[in-house]
Design a protein that fits this description.
two-stranded antiparallel sheet; 6 strands; 235 residues; alpha+beta
């Protein structure tokens, strides 16, 4: 159903571009997300798509910036880590993968993933961080996440990184549309990632390729399944 370029984020043929607000999303995800937004609005929340589709090149820039110490790395609590204390490529790779996906393997490249916030609940000129402290009690988006807990799966969404189970750190703001994302995950292969990464100007590329089967298992396939009957649709 999807070709290799779509599955690795090297084309936009599977997404549509929206404006006001501006974001791109998988063609099959737009209507369910609108329904989720409408439900949130009725309960007093304005669900804003802070980040949705990101192509391969965008993910590559994020990766290279973090690998080379130009972008911050964080621990599980969202506290910045000291880049100088990472003494090997493996340590840097593992640290990046706690919060950011491999280029070619990011779920955001499918257009099925949307990071959500409610800017109407934030102070004026608030700088969204997408870190844990925003979602816990006392955090600016805490009430929003209580609502999301009760409602997202009614509309086909779930949190693939709802808890830490050895791969990505928890990202409660990261919503995924199960009916499409599940099929795309099953379609993605290690060989597709090898092809995408080999031709990229990617920092740490050779070590990533050496470790790719392990990274694919632990950081791509290792997700939290939906809590309700959504996972019964798994083929």
């Amino acid at each position: 159903m999807w070709n290799e370029l779509e599955l690795t984020g090297r084309t936009r043929s599977h997404v549509i571009q929206l404006n006001n607000p501006r974001f791109a999303v998988n063609k099959e995800v737009y209507q369910p997300f609108c329904e989720l937004q409408n439900a949130a609005q009725k309960d007093g929340f304005t669900l804003f798509p802070f980040s949705a589709f990101r192509g391969f090149e965008t993910q590559l820039k994020i990766w290279n910036g973090k690998f080379n110490g130009q972008k911050p790395l964080y621990d599980i609590h969202g506290v910045p880590r000291d880049y100088s204390q990472l003494h090997s490529e493996d340590e840097v790779i593992d640290c990046i993968l706690n919060w950011s996906a491999l280029p070619g393997a990011s779920r955001h490249q499918w257009g099925t993933e949307i990071d959500v916030v409610d800017l109407t609940k934030a102070p004026e000129n608030y700088h969204v961080q997408l870190l844990p402290q925003e979602t816990v009690k006392g955090g600016v988006f805490y009430d929003l996440h209580l609502w999301l807990n009760e409602n997202i799966e009614k509309y086909g969404f779930f949190r693939p990184y709802g808890m830490h189970q050895g791969g990505m750190y928890p990202e409660p703001w990261h919503l995924s549309y199960w009916p499409v994302a599940n099929r795309m995950l099953q379609s993605l292969t290690v060989d597709m990632l090898v092809d995408a990464i080999k031709s990229a100007d990617m920092s740490g590329k050779h070590r990533v390729l050496e470790r790719l089967p392990e990274l694919f298992k632990n950081h791509v396939q290792n997700i939290c399944l939906p809590l309700t009957g959504l996972n019964n649709e798994r083929s």
